[in-house]
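user: can you give me the structure for this one chain? tokens are fine.
assistant: on it. calling the predictor now.
[tool input]
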Amino acid sequence: MDVPNMDSLEDVARQVRSCTDCPLSGSRTNAVPGEGPADAEIMFIGEGPGFHEDRLGRPFVGPAGQFLEALLADAGLRRDRVFIANMVKCRPPNNRDPLPAETAACSKYLDRQIELIDPKVIVTLGRFSMSKFFPRESISKARGRARPVGGRLVYPMMHPAAALHRNELKATIMEDFRAIPGLLVETPAVQEQGGEGGDDQGQQLSMF
């Protein structure tokens, strides 16, 4: 369903906060539209708000968010210069995985945010956001490989929360994160192939 009058990120946020298009709206404390500058060159897309995000109406403010901020600093990036969003804008009960109907209901907002920001690089955090661009791939194989999609680079990563549950993943996530600034000066090494999604889309960039 198209939503009119989304000419700015503030318009999108207002629509998100009043949205009742899926059952998640009935259990939320606050919707979490996302945050960051309209001219951000890097956009991060996570899965959905958790307990702390639902309480504050901001993305990545809990333990995973604290690790994300540490990763940003380690890579020489600033949180206030990137845009952070999620596949769904309201917290799924008990932090369960979002349902297909829920991600579909929110897609109009996320797609419009991508259009308005027009980032050079989209970093997907975890398998749910990766599947928006590469639906038939596994995160273990796709992570750390930037590929062109829709005139920009999409860079899949494991979700920061994964390191909170499995400490052995922390070094891998940090290594992948440190490559992000270099993507801003890279040009895609290949032409896009076959539209969005699929195993045959693009190739690994030469820098990796």
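assistant: here you go. Residues 189-208 have pLDDT under 50 and may be disordered. The beta strands are 42-46, 83-86, 121-125, 147-149, 152-157.
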